Automatic annotation (TrEMBL):
Residues 10-28, 56-65 have a biased composition (Basic and acidic residues). PANTHER family: THYMOCYTE NUCLEAR PROTEIN 1 (PTHR14087:SF7). Residues 73-235 form the EVE domain. GO terms for cellular component: nucleus. InterPro entries: 5hmC_binding, EVE_domain, PUA-like_sf, THYN1-like_EVE. This is Thymocyte nuclear protein 1. The lineage of its organism: Eukaryota, Metazoa, Chordata, Craniata, Vertebrata. The gene is Thyn1.
Length: 242
């Protein structure tokens, strides 16, 4: 029997650390029809990072004058603590993933158009950070890989599921999911607060995390990462906690 849906219904909440209290659960509104009709490709933007130690994948646009950021890794948010949504516990931690057969499961329940488009852009074998969200101390706990590319999310048709969508049709499903498999735990927990400190520093000096979507679109439960963003965050596991 599969685990209950464990992702956000309309979008992930913004992670804010509050002493001795759970994070407020403020969901992002589902984007309108125009968002649904946008390209399924991840967004692109120019990059002028001067960091010499971080390799960047570039692709020229049709004019050949500008470079575009290529997203090849991901960050997936899930809730490690119990929370009822329409009577169903949406908790799903990395330990829950490890307990699945073959340490593999589907990543269902995404109900935000941009997050869905990111799911549809995922490629077989790509890696993603598993991020514990909506908890006392959010952050990255492990690494998973994409083992099945996007296909229709069955929960949109299940009236008993908290993420049921009566407007979706089986002949033209609105929502997609992918399958992910546990790869490994990070060598240490990498908290949001630490990543944010680097993001703020990089905004000032042009470092690799200056445009990290974890801070520019923090409510999205599915977020793309550039190679240099992924590499830099991964390097933090080798450092002593601050």
């Amino acid at each position: 029997m599969p685990w209950p849906s464990r992702k956000r219904d309309k979008g992930a909440v913004a992670d804010k650390k509050e002493p001795d209290a759970k994070i407020a659960k403020t969901e992002e509104e589902t984007q309108d029809k125009e968002e649904e009709e946008k390209s399924t490709k991840p967004p692109a933007g120019s990059s002028k990072s001067g960091w010499k130690n971080w390799k960047k994948t570039k692709e020229s646009d049709s004019g050949g004058e500008e470079s575009k950021i290529t997203y090849c890794h991901w960050l997936l948010k899930s809730e490690p603590e119990s929370r009822l949504e329409k009577g169903v516990d949406v908790k799903f931690s990395i330990d829950d993933l490890k307990a699945q057969p073959n340490q593999t499961t589907f990543w269902d329940g995404v109900r935000n158009y941009q997050a869905r488009n990111f799911l549809r852009a995922m490629k077989l074998g790509q890696q993603a950070f598993f991020y514990h969200s909506n908890c006392k101390e959010p952050g990255i706990v492990g690494i998973v890989k994409i083992v099945k590319e996007a296909y229709p999310d069955h929960t949109q048709f299940d009236q008993k599921d908290p993420h049921y969508d009566s407007s979706s049709r089986k002949e033209n499903p609105k929502w997609s999911m992918v399958d992910v498999q546990f790869e490994r735990m990070t060598k240490r927990f990498i908290p949001l607060s630490e990543i944010k400190a680097h993001h703020l520093a990089h905004k000032a000096d042009g470092g690799p995390l200056k445009n990290m979507m974890l801070f520019t679109r923090q409510r999205l439960s599915i977020q793309p990462l550039t190679q240099e963003e992924f590499d830099f965050v991964l390097s933090l596991e080798e450092e002593k906690p601050h």
